[in-house]
Amino acid sequence: MAGKSGRTISAVPVRSWKKLILSWEGALVVIFIAVLIAGRIMSPSFNLNSVMFMMPQYLSQLFIVFPMAFVLIMGEIDISVGSIACLSATTACLAANAGLPLPLMILVCLGTGLACGALNGFVLTVWPELPPMIVTLGTQIIFRGISEVVIGAGSSLKYDSDNLSPFAATAGPVPVVFFAVVVVAVLFMILLSKTTFGRRLYAIGSNRTAAKYAGIGVNRVRFIVYALAGLMAALCALFLLTQIPAVKSDEFGKGFEMNVIAMCVFGGIATTGGKGNLFGAFIAGMTIVCMRIALGLINVNDNVITIVIGVLLIVSVLISGISRFKGKGKAKKKPKSVTAD
Amino acid sequence: MKAFLRKLSGNHEISLAIILVVLFIVVDILSGFTFHGIGNIGEIFKNNSLTLIMSLGMLCVLLTGGIDISITGVLAFAGMTVGMLQKYNVIKNVPLLFLIAIAIGALCGLLNGVVIAKGKVSPIICTLGAMYIWRGLATVVYNGEWASGENVAGMSAFGNTAGPYIILAAAFVVYFVVMKWTPFGRKVYAIGSNREAAQISGINVDRVEILVYVLMGVLAGLAGALSVSLYGSAQPTMQDGKEMDVIAACVIGGVSMSGGRGTVVGTLLGGIFYAVVYKALPLVGLESIWQNLIKGVIILAVVVINVVSQRISRRQTLARREI
């Protein structure tokens, strides 16, 4: 049939090992391994045990990377996640200090996050022409403001219960939070690449109007994604409470949104939407976490590490931009096509 | 009358100015006519001078459809550098220190501009990376010793004169003239409204874009020196997170995030609006702890009202056309 018309479908990706290694994700794996080797050379105490021991304090941010990747793939942005984490941690503290049992406390915490995310989603879907950056900037200030009113400016709310110990437990050297991150990562990867929901995200990100006319409930999808971001921010807060058992309204989760966006972009997700996958984001997140641990072990100031991350971010985006330009030229010359028949 | 009202609701600056005047009068009455004093108004401008100055640069950046979240990082880096130069008695000359801060800001802005315009990197990502870099460098400069009031005595003395007011006023006058009556200002608007059209009509889009980010850096550097003068200290954490305040001031003032729409007057009103509300809070019985919460609500309310009024006016235009 296709032979008659002579039409070919050139958009079907062909998987080959060469392409896999040359892709951004392949490069990230190489960078990740390089960071591990460099860490090992620089500091003899950089080994599995020490990495796993230090991991929990950085790892909880990774929970937010996945929903943030969803938001970015839609071509939008959510800068309220750090504040949602702060507010969820506040309600979790209040619940635990009021003597609520653990499951109920978790429910309160995650419920708060979900409600905050749903509020973002609600505002953005009722008035879809609003820029997400400004709406989430407003809610960012509001959520942190609520927690400031509850806790009081400058003072901190202590988590007066040791029922969080199952979250801080380890299986061998591996902390529970690592397993949790991997499970969440796998779930989100399946959601993104194996379900219609995931395909809809890409569709919305590449062309919103076309997605709408193709019958996708754009606003419903957006609402779900923002609510998910809130939920995951609350989950992050829950694990972070095991590391910092006190909430300060101007410190808890501060700057998380930017760290998480940096991880996503470093992982090859374009902020313009429609591009990127979670494997890249996950590896990028792990690379940054391991780099922080390695540099922390050789007593490099945490702020110097942020310089490294900043340079890495700009350079990686520049390189992927340049390679994209080159790739365009190549694709015209040598289209890898599959004949449909 | 109807046409007049329509014109009022259609113009963001005028409606904002009216709300501001009404708010001002209400606050003045509630406070027993103590609010309108020159000292009080001067205080409002002084407390918000950093946000106001940087909002001018942000206006241009937003007009081209970009965004710059590295400004407070630049501010901290420039401020920290001039603070340290004074602490170690390298340079004590205040105008020279301001120039150094501005030069640092311009270089930081140049980097942003080149990466964004030539490297085609999305502005939020480039400036996010830059934010990390400059804030980190500020800490490196700081190296565990901050500059206290005695160290920066020369600059704090300047901060107590009329200097900051003059700088603020000069910046607004210059920007008002430049954005309204010079080719550069019109080019910025042209790029924001339609980039392709601007390119085809012979505007060097890349150069204008780089210049916009350089100007943003210049103002951030200036704000860094000003911050040291006003607060009498230099710390690497200064004004952390305040870039969002600057963006919020622009948005409240009617600057569009997608570019092409916004004015200097609107930006000024947006910057003052929140300051007046904050001053008004204790008068209506709310403690200052509610300040942040209310700020967020204002931002949301303003953008939502904006969208709703746009929808109404669009519907009215449609209805008129059907007759």
Order of strands in the sheet with the most strands of chain A? 1-6
Strand content of chain B: under 5%
- Given as residue ranges, the uncertain stretches of chain A (5+ residues, pLDDT < 50) are 1-5, 328-341
The H-and-E topology of chain A, N to C, reads as HEHHHHHHHHEHEEHHHHEHHHE
- Biggest interface, CB < 8 A: A-B, 49 and 45 residues
Helix coverage percent of residues of chain B?
over 70%
Gyration radius of chain B, in Å: 21 Å
Number of strands of chain B: 0
Pairing-aware structural class of the strands and helices of chain A? mainly alpha
Shape of chain B: globular
* Rg over CA atoms of chain A: 22 Å
- Biggest sheet of chain A, in brief? 2 strands, antiparallel
Order of helices and strands of chain B: HHHHHHHHHHHHHHH
Description:
- The complex is a heterodimer of chains A (341) and B (323).
- Chain A has 17 helices and six strands.
- Chain A has 341 residues and is mostly helical.
- Chain A has a domain of 230 residues.
- Chain A has a two-stranded antiparallel ribbon. Chain A has a two-stranded antiparallel ribbon with strand order 2-5. In chain A, strands 3-4 form a two-stranded antiparallel sheet.
- Chain A is globular, with a radius of gyration of 22 Å.
- Chain B is an all-alpha fold and 323 residues long.
- Chain B has a domain of 216 residues.
- Chain B is 76% helix and 0% strand.
- Chain B contains 15 helices and no strands.
- In chain B, α2 packs parallel to α14, α4 runs antiparallel to α12 and α9 packs across α10.
- The two termini of chain B are 21 Å apart.
